[in-house]
Amino acid sequence: MDQAPSPLVWIAIAAVVIGIVVLQWRMAVQRRKDLASWAAKNGLDFDPGRDYGLEDRLPDFSRLNEGFDRYAYNVSSGRRGSYRVWIFDWHYCTKGRDSDGKRDDVDHRMSAVVVVPEYHLKPLLIRKETVGDRIGEFFGAEDIDFESVEFSRRYLVKSPDRRWAFDVLHQEAMEFLLSSSDFALEFLPGGVIAWRGAAVLTPQELDEVLRVPIFLLDKLPPSVIEELRGGM
Fold first, then answer.
1. Phi and psi at residue 30, in whole multiples of 5°?
2. Do 197 and 110 form a contact (C-beta atoms < 8 A)?
3. What pTM was estimated for this model as a whole?
4. Which of these, 217, 214, 201, 218, lies nearest to 112 by C-alpha position?
5. In what order do the strands lie in the sheet with 68-80?
6. Residue 142: how many CA atoms within 13 Å on its side-chain side?
7. Of 15, 18, 116, 147, most Cβ neighbours within 10 A?
8. Which residues pair with 94 in a beta bridge?
9. For residues 192 and 122, what is the distance between their CA atoms, to the nearest angstrom?
10. What are phi and psi of 71, to 5 degrees?
């Protein structure tokens, strides 16, 4: 007959659980302090609280429409040059199952950067190419290729407007992206959202991600910007 665990075992388990909770709390507090300092250094406002309305203020971004119980937190916002910027941690839930097969909500967290210029953009997706993407291409899935074989091998690029893709991804832009860490970028009429997988990023990593969409927008040809302004 199986014996019930002794009280000492339960005490040890409880101590471990409490230790994990305390460690997570301390890490969250330290992260808020680090992000507040980073925001102040960059001349941005910082709010650590939950923001359930950010997706309504940034309605174009499907990346922010996944799952349920969605909210931003640790939000830095303000201006970077002529651009409006939001840098934030993002939470959402999806339906899943626990180890016993029972339905359970699964929490997801990531960091994202949104950069909004003073003109509307056109749709364009840029992200690291996967094995699944290559298999899809074999069966006819569309992907825009460029003269740079290295760039085309590393990145998946999709847009309903091929000319726009080439306007954004000129030689200087491709060289810049090849020298950067892997990330995902989506251009939509309301701006650009950038993220790095399902990762919560450090302030140093956020610096790197933030500079990517700003660099690409800064390097748009003046004639293209004028055309975009005319389409508003």
1. -65, -40
2. yes
3. 0.82
4. 201
5. 45-47, 68-80, 83-97, 103-116, 191-195, 184-188, 124-128, 155-158
6. 6
7. 116
8. 106
9. 10
10. -160, 155
Could you tell me where the beta strands, DSSP code E, fall in the chain?
A: 45-47, 68-80, 83-97, 103-116, 124-128, 155-158, 184-188, 191-195
Task: Report, in angstroms and rounded to the nearest whole number, the Rg of the chain calculated over CA atoms.
Answer: 22
Task: Give the model confidence (pLDDT) of 91-110 as tens digits.
Answer: 999 987 666 666 778 889 99
- The span from the CA of 144 to the CA of 38, in Å, is 37
What pLDDT does residue 138 have? 42
Six-digit token string for 105: 């909500």
Instruction: Check if the beta carbon of residue 147 is closer than 8 Å to that of residue 175.
Output: no
Contact 93, 128 (CB under 8 A): no
Cβ-in-10-Å burial (0-12, 13-18, 19+) of 183 comes to: buried
Specify the pairing of strand 103-116 against strand 191-195.
antiparallel
- Total residues belonging to the chain: 232
Write out the two tokens for 184: 């995902």
Distances (CA, A) of 70 to 63, 64, 73, 110: 11, 8, 10, 12
Q: Is the pLDDT of residue 118 over 70?
A: yes
Reading the block at residue 112, the tokens are 């994202």
